[in-house]
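Need residues for this backbone.
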């Protein structure tokens, strides 16, 4: 990209104003599901950002490996105690079946457990990754000031955000359970509603980093997501599929965080009605 051209002085010594910058291209409403994969290309081009993916991945693998070895040892001891009274002809078959089942169940269970705690452990690195991608894409970040209680405020807003997500899930979930009692169409409506609710929560998680940097209220975050339909719902569906694969999701979670930031910068930022150098003073 060429350097911005400075105003040229007129013969009289006055600056001649440059023509206005061209308007950005119209957002592509259906581009949402592409952004987790576009994030791969961006990270490949900017390899200095790999550290924010690899460090939490390594931490999760080390902790998960230690926990897996410990649980496997405890499980094998429990199996040996349980089968100690079996006859010899049955012992070999039962040992193979139970040990194989233990290995598979531990892999699946730890996979889902590592998603929950892995996201929390990796949050500091994922937040920095999102900031660096937004600065890379837009050239700057929103100005938030240096309020002495900013850390306390940010923690409080994070707790409010999680609480409001929980209330949203409980409220909508209760409604869906009631609709499920309708004969005929009830199960279909409930199943579709649960999928939509899950996708909405996924969008809130993976689009929250750039939205929270602007201190938007929870209602406005929902407004940005609904205003970006159908791209946001398609983005959420792809991310839901990517993070639902045990162990693989340790890699796909930061990809979805990066994809959400790029998606916001390219497609959704203009829906936020405050300039980048201002923040919304409304809380939670």
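Answer:
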């Amino acid at each position: 990209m060429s350097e911005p051209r400075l105003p040229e002085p007129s013969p009289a010594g006055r600056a001649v104003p440059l023509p206005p910058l061209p308007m950005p291209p119209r957002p592509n409403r259906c581009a949402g599901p592409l952004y987790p994969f576009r994030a791969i290309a961006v990270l490949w081009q900017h390899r200095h950002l790999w550290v924010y993916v690899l460090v939490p991945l390594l931490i999760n693998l080390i902790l998960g490996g230690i926990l897996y070895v410990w649980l496997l040892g405890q499980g094998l001891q429990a199996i040996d105690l349980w089968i100690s009274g079996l006859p010899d002809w049955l012992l070999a078959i039962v040992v193979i079946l139970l040990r194989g089942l233990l290995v598979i169940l531990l892999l699946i269970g730890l996979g889902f457990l590592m998603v929950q705690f892995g996201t929390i452990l990796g949050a500091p690195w994922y937040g920095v990754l999102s900031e660096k991608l937004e600065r890379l894409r837009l050239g700057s970040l929103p100005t938030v000031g240096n309020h002495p209680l900013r850390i306390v405020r940010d923690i409080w807003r994070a707790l409010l955000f999680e609480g409001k997500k929980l209330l949203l899930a409980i409220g909508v979930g209760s409604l869906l359970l009631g609709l499920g009692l309708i004969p005929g169409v009830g199960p279909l409506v409930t199943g579709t509603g649960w999928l939509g609710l899950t996708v909405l929560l996924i969008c809130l998680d993976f689009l929250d980093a750039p939205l929270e940097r602007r201190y938007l209220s929870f209602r406005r975050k929902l407004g940005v997501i609904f205003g970006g339909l159908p791209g946001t719902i398609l983005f959420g569906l792809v991310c839901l599929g990517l993070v639902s694969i045990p162990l693989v999701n340790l890699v796909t979670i930061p990809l979805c965080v990066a994809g959400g930031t790029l998606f916001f910068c390219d497609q959704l930022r203009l829906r936020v009605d405050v300039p980048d150098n201002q923040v919304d003073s409304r809380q939670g």
